């Protein structure tokens, strides 16, 4: 009888000594998409053309770290979007051809006031323009 009580006590203590399994929420393992704050329609004030126009930024379905920027530099509708790589609060547009043989490269930074500040180079034919722009909603 003493052995049974001792065995029951050991089993009861063992149950309290072993840690239980903790259920981990998968959402904690995958933080919010860093592209999210860049997505959507933006109005643009730009220095190169001294123009105000709109762009649309969408998530690149082929790469979870990239966005597609339609009408970047005011290329107009129907042209290939610029591809931007998101790194934290920055979007980098590496040298690429968009529009009618326009070459662009530069970067933007998402600001605490909800705007994106850009500096970029735009090459159209033999003209090279150093541009700055602000995207706002």
Task: Describe the fold and architecture.
With 137 residues, the protein is mainly β. The chain has one domain: Lipocalin (Beta Barrel). It has 2 helices and 8 strands. The chain has helices spanning 2-17, 26-29, and strands spanning 40-46, 52-59, 66-70, 82-87, 90-98, 102-110, 116-124, 127-136. An 8-stranded antiparallel β-barrel has the order 1-2-3-4-5-6-7-8. The longest helix is centred in the N-terminal third of the chain and has 16 residues, at 2-17.
What are the defining features of this structure?
15% helix; 137 residues; mainly beta; Lipocalin; 2 helices; 46% strand; 8-stranded antiparallel barrel; single chain
CATH-assigned homologous superfamily: Avidin-like
Strand content: over 45%
CA radius of gyration is: 27 Å
Cross-sheet strand order for the largest sheet: 1-2-3-4-5-6-7-8
User: Major β-sheet, in short?
Assistant: 8 strands, antiparallel, barrel
Query: What are the segments in which pLDDT stays under 50 over at least 5 consecutive residues?
Result: 23-29
Summarize the structure.
This protein has helices spanning 2-17, 26-29; strands spanning 40-46, 52-59, 66-70, 82-87, 90-98, 102-110, 116-124, 127-136.
Helix and strand arrangement:
Elements: H1 2-17, H2 26-29, E1 40-46, E2 52-59, E3 66-70, E4 82-87, E5 90-98, E6 102-110, E7 116-124, E8 127-136
Antiparallel strand pairs: 1-2, 1-8, 2-3, 3-4, 4-5, 5-6, 6-7, 7-8
């Amino acid at each position: 009888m003493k052995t049974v009580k001792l065995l029951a006590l050991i089993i009861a203590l063992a149950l309290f000594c072993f840690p239980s399994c903790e259920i981990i929420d998968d959402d904690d393992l995958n933080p919010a998409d860093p592209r999210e704050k860049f997505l959507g329609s933006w109005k643009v004030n730009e220095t190169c053309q001294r123009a105000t126009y709109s762009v649309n930024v969408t998530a690149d379905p082929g790469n979870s770290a990239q966005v597609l920027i339609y009408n970047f530099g005011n290329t107009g509708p129907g042209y290939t979007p610029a591809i931007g790589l998101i790194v934290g609060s920055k979007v980098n547009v590496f040298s690429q051809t968009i529009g009618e043989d326009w070459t662009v490269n530069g970067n933007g930074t998402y600001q605490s006031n909800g705007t994106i500040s850009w500096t970029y180079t735009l090459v159209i034919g033999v003209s090279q323009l150093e541009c700055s722009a602000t995207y706002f909603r």
